[in-house]
Design a protein that fits this description.
The structure is a single chain. The chain is an alpha/beta fold and 228 residues long. The chain has one domain: Vaccinia Virus protein VP39 (Rossmann fold), CATH 3.40.50.150. 37% of the residues lie in helices and 18% in strands. It is built from nine helices and seven strands. The radius of gyration is 17 Å and the shape is globular.
Length: 228
Amino acid sequence: MSERSAAREYRIRSYVLRAGRMSDAQRRSYETLFPRYGIPFDAIALDYTSVFGKRNPLIIEIGFGMGIATAMIAEANPSVNYLGIEVYRPGIGKLLWEIERRNLSNVRIIEHDVVETLERMIPAASVAGFHIFFPDPWPKKRHHKRRLITRPFTGLLASRLAPGGYLYMVTDWAEYGDWALAELSATQGLLNAYDGFALPQSWRPETRFERKGIEKQHIVRELYFKQG
């Protein structure tokens, strides 16, 4: 079975679209800035140089939430291009506001389902890294099928990594960390850079969401896999 055929079996959504309330600032940012920094979904492979105006390595962040960490990482690494894929519109509005406030030229956003986006718009072996920070753990057993980090989707991620590329995931749900470690370890084309869970990456900023989890005594798991 090809990677594309396998990925198309993964059609249970890993998210539920919620009509989260947008603040006035988020709405204004979305309406005025998305035409500039947003990329409409299309069944055509992206030309990264055309999109960003620079031929730099591409990092894709899947589900960036409110986008604060995304903006901070992009600001600290101007020679890297960042593409955020998200469906939560208030978060998109917030990241757009951060892009404008920080004068970032290296961030773009696609508002669409990640599976279809990777299948249709992201060429194979073209991504320097994937960031997946605190995806929904879907803790109830009957909902485990909705988890993002599961096969065959992990195979699609592996197929999009360029030589030397990496996949970096963080979760504050310990059982999901165990699940993801098993799924990623069993994925052809991925090699664990650590013996088990990864050490904390110093360049990743701690988010408010993460601090809340730690205050609730959640255990943070980090996973770092390389293309191979």
